[in-house]
Amino acid sequence: MMASDEITGGSLLMDCLISLGGAKAFGVPGESYLAVLDAMYERQDKFNLMVCRHEGGAAYMAEAWGKLTGTPGLCFVTRGPGATNASIGIHTAMQNSTPMIVFVGQVGRGMKGREAFQEIDYSHYFGKVAKLVVEIDCPDRIPEIISRAWTTALSGRPGPVVVALPEDMLTARSSAKPCLPVIIPAPDISLFQRDQLDHFLSGAKRPIVLYGGSGWTADAARQLESFAGNNRVPLVAAFRFHDICDNFHPSYVGDAGVGMLGYIKVLFDQADLIIAINVRFGECTTDGYSLFDCPNMRAKLVHSHPSDDEIGKIYAPDLSLQATPNAMAAVLSDVQLEDDAGRSNWVQAAKTAYDASYSVKAQPGNLDMGDVLAHIRDVIPDDAIVTNGAGNFAIWPNKFLKFGPKGRLLAPQSGAMGYGVPAAIAAKAYDQSRFVLCFAGDGDFQMNCNELGSAMQEGLPLIILIVNNGTYGTIRMHQERDYPERVSGTDLVNPDFVKLAEAYGFYGERVEKTEDFFGAFKRACSSKSGAILDLVVATEAITPRQNINDLRSLSK
Fold it and tell me: How many domains does one find in the chain?
């Protein structure tokens, strides 16, 4: 006889998530976790599942949600194909250092090891792509493992966790109580380490701060800006972390990322102290690991990170600080260096170079993206959320937009195509009052344009700009460089994007001339159902070779 206080594993799972603060998830339904879907039905007033069209899109949305909220983005997918489809979002969350939990249906416990229908050993499949991969075999252990998953996703370097749910475990009953909210460890800086940091700072003539990663609070960002402003220290954002500090701040001088501008390279070369806060020194931030000598930089290196696994992984620090970015910013906010005219002039020269980088030369063709971005900078709200996927088109939002203290950028560190559209949908779901703008290439857009159905179903009116050049642009650029005049596998024949927009209930318009963009963008912003603008930038006047030269000119 069942005890009166027993509930299914699916119900217990949902009660644990709600207790931890989970209120929204993204997913595609599957028969392997029907008991969880049923438990969601009973908790509709506390928990919402956004139904997506593809598990890859769902995982991208969960990643974007985690980045926006600082809490684990939740994703539910079915076993086998559902899990493998979601793997791109898991990899993106890992490289973005974004907290995320992916719940995957699994075959029944009695069928494991027989290559049952859609069976996968998730610990082997996801391996080191996720921070933790765990399977719950007993419903009584659901509170323990969900608490661990939530803690793991947020601790140290935040990242994705995969939790496998055997379908018969979800229907089994348990009298276990839901877990309680967790306390995430926040490593701090000791008094002795503060003295060491002061010693390095006081001895530096040209210190520079390189920052990035997740887990920042708005207060910490303002504290870092205060330190930099008071002491005339340049701030450089790591690849696609433009939105942490105010880009209009006098000490913000640009980003270290793809298409790294020459003055940024010079700035690091001239620095005698590099304070790296919460960065993992990825390939893009280090210009293919050519920006710094390895393992010992010419400049002194202070590297702070909440995870000891990241400190010394590539570059050996002269001072290692295991601390959250918020703790590091708080300590720096109390530092006052001696005035130094040379340092002030150094920062001002870098800021001048940063501001000058927004003056791009006229682009070939009838639609000039330089003019397009200049207009967008002037008209979008200060708290706009901008998203993009991967491709040469991403150079435009990443190099030619500025993010104030309220603006946000959602973009993949992993260089994953198809990210921008799902991320924009998640952003609009996060705050429907915010202006959400997605930049997508024509190839990039088509990897997840089916998620427009999710936006339509939820009534989320975002704006998408498709930079349409009729090719897989990044690959074509490399192809023209290494195998000139031998085009293979990179041309695209595209559908009518305007009709596609209309099919999903969006306003659609094709723009072929610069002067036509301004009115089109105003109409797009006025659309209550969302809008897609097809920006045709490919003409006979714009060859891939010219595109390469234009991109290179931006890096000088």
Answer: 3
Residue ranges of alpha helices (H) inside 292-394 are: 325-332, 341-356, 369-379
CATH number for the domain including 289? 3.40.50.1220
CA dihedral 276→278→283→286, nearest 10 degrees, is -20
Separation in Å, CA 319 to CA 302, 314, 412:
5, 14, 30
Domain hosting 412: range is 369-554
Does residue 295 have a cis bond before it (omega within 30 degrees)?
yes
Which tens digit of pLDDT belongs to each residue from 167-222?
999 999 999 999 999 999 999 999 999 999 999 999 999 999 999 999 999 999 99
**In the β-sheet with 385-388, what is the strand arrangement from edge to edge?**
408-410, 385-388, 436-441, 463-468, 531-536, 507-511
Structure-token match 């708080």, residue found: 330
Tell if the pTM clears 0.90, that is, is over it.
yes
Q: Domain check: are 202 and 342 in the same one?
A: yes
Angle formed by the axes of helices 9-20 and 34-42, nearest 10°: 60
Helix (H) or strand (E) run with residue 323 in it: none
Q: Answer yes or no: are the C-beta atoms of 434 and 384 closer than 8 Å.
A: yes
Query: How far apart, in Å, are the Cα atoms of 516 and each of 337, 379, 453?
Result: 51, 16, 28
